[in-house]
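Posting here for the record, re: 3-methyl-2-oxobutanoic acid.
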Amino acid sequence: MSHQAAIRRKTIKDIMKAKGTHKLVCLTAYTAPIAQMLDDHCDLLLVGDSVGMVLHGLPDTTAVTLDMMIMHGKAVMRGSQKALVVVDMPFGSYEESPQAGYRNALRVMQETGCQAIKLEYNSAAPETIRFLVDRGIPVVAHIGLRPQYLHVEGGYKVAGKNEESRKEQLECAKQVVEAGAFAVVVEGTKDAVAREISDTIAVPTIGIGASVDCDGQILVTDDMLGMFEKTPKFVRRYADLKTHIEDGVKKFADDVRREQFPAEDETY
Ligand code: KIV
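Prediction output follows.
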């Protein structure tokens, strides 16, 4: 038997209790080594369907599959021990009916071992959220700019820009909380509207392109570490990994071409 204190993973209760106490630090993770590096610093790791664009080179998130989410979810669970892990339900996996959503969410939870799933708001979402929560599946709802609705919206549109949209977003937030969501991601929403949502609902809001007054913040890790030249306005760059990687690769290529690699002490 080990005498080491067991490392405890954060629970949805820990996340809910953070509201009004401390800000939630959240980032996306898709692989075990990145999850390992983020784990000490984050309350929540999201296996976002942004994986389709970030790692698989897809133009948007609509072609991401349940199998992709499960594969990346498993890797993030293997790499982390402390953060709460939430896996995104991909486009088409929860909209058909609450029952279909339940079967797919159950697969995600059972096969990855994650603590919760996230789904994007649509008019049928409150019923599905209620169905899932009643059957033991914790849900994070995603409102505001919803990347999976890109084609319906005709692009990525900032939410809450006028009075009608403000009311709509407040209503979405109210509905998903009443249905049982334990946290709400508020993406691409006018600052004042995101603040009003955060002040109004009882569960934590996690902002992305929203407001400093959200209860937590999330960014796509690869965006904030500088893996891409072009990122949305709301991304702050905390590192320049693309340049570091390209510099390293250039040096390696140069060494190989000049027969400077491997050296004697790097061979058997
Ligand atoms: O897929 C994703 O990465 C998201 C964001 C909230 C970061 O949903």
